[in-house]
Amino acid sequence: MTRLVITLGDPAGIGAEVVLKALADPTVTQNAEITIAGNRVYLDEMYDRLIPSCPNLANPADLNILHLDSPGEITLGTGDAISGEASFRYLDTAIDRTLSGEFDGIVTAPIAKSAWKAAGHVYPGQTELLAEKAGVDRFGMMFVARSPHTGWTLRTLLATTHIPLRQVAEALTPEALTCKVELLIECLDQAFGITQPRIAIAGLNPHSGEQGQLGREEIDGLSPWLDEMRQRFPQAQLDGLLPPDTMWVKPGQAWFGSDRVSAHDAYLALYHDQGLIPVKLMAFDRAVNTSIGLPFVRTSPDHGTAFDIAGKGIADATSMKAAIEFAIELVQRRSSRPLIRAI
Q1: Where in the chain is the domain with CATH 3.40.718.10?
Q2: Candidates 3.30.70.1060, 3.30.70.260, 3.40.50.170, 3.40.718.10; correct CATH number of 1-137+293-343?
Q3: pLDDT, tens only, 224-281
């Protein structure tokens, strides 16, 4: 049986609501032993608040809860130093317990980076804390979603994550990009059984630089690097550097229509919005963020804290359900096929 720990995320947001809604579905939990890392009193209060308008909620009295004391009073709908400290403790404890062997994987509800910073925890996001505590410097953020229209699976890896746009070009070093491609090829093999993947790689500039007319990053660095990757990974078809505006046409067709054959197995976007704008347009309510390269499974819904609707009972739990189900699937695949590092 898969053992998962779910963190409640920022308690001022919708984390508790989507967790309780997701865990009310028996098909989500039937293949896992689930523990919640959070504050029991807060979870009970949220349940009492929502149950009149949301009858399909898991009762906290029936759940395994790893109780953590609250650092102070939470103001629902307002992320601050107190809520940031609480969400940091939830994740920090979940990581420690997972590294000790108590759990096989972690599913994280959303946090607010600004609240973490207000609490004195300066990280670009949860992924970086996970990697730091796991002792790895080779990791990535991949977003996975299955189309409800066609059944096709969208897989998008970000080459860079939470950095200002003006820093992206400098961050796209050959070493950093090679790490991402290695991780992606590994993940497609180990998690999805795709041994000869077709991967689309975006250019950086409009029209991928238009042969140097709109920027020389492709000519001077990205194209030579990609030629080297094709030699290094002959089992993979690496297509690029594709113009960023047209790279998403085929996945859009595969998601909404019937043309799945011409779509790639995965997409490498060079910066945050280049990858996540199309992902959220297609799959905002069902995409899953998974951290690859860690010694354990971690998934998360692809949405934020939604402070503006916290406590109103209207949050959509579809992405949280998908995150739990995908975490179970990944743990089961890891147990049957141990991870092998690419060389």
Answers
A1: 1-137+293-343, 140-291
A2: 3.40.718.10
A3: 999 999 999 999 999 989 999 999 999 999 999 877 778 999 999 999 999 999 999 9
- Which of 266, 248, 286, 35 is CA-nearest to residue 154? 266
Token pair belonging to 82: 């107190």
Note the pTM of the prediction, 2 decimals.
Answer: 0.90
Say which residue the tokens 């991780």 belong to. Answer: 183
Element (H, E) at 267: strand 266-269
Helix 272-283 crosses helix 249-256 at what angle (to 10 degrees)? 20
- Per the document, the length of the chain is 343
Closest CA to 242 of 179, 198, 291: 198
CA–CA gap between residue 145 and residue 251 (Å, rounded): 12
DSSP state of 62: G
Which architecture does CATH list for 140-291? 3-Layer(aba) Sandwich (3.40)
pLDDT tens digits, 82-111: 999 999 999 999 999 999 999 999 999 999
Residue 6 DSSP SS3: strand
Phi, psi of 45 (to 5 degrees): -65, -40
Cis preceding linkage at 50, omega within 30: no
Beta sheet of 288-292, edge-to-edge order: 64-67, 32-38, 2-7, 105-108, 297-301, 288-292, 140-146, 153-158, 266-269, 198-202, 237-242
Of 89, 46, 83, 2, the C-alpha closest to 299 is: 2
User: Rounded to 5 degrees, what are φ and ψ at 155?
Assistant: -130, 120
Q: How many beta carbons lie within 10 A of that of residue 40, not counting itself?
A: 17
Contact 83, 71 (CB under 8 A): no
**Among 274, 275, 330, 270, which residue's Cα sits nearest to residue 300?**
330
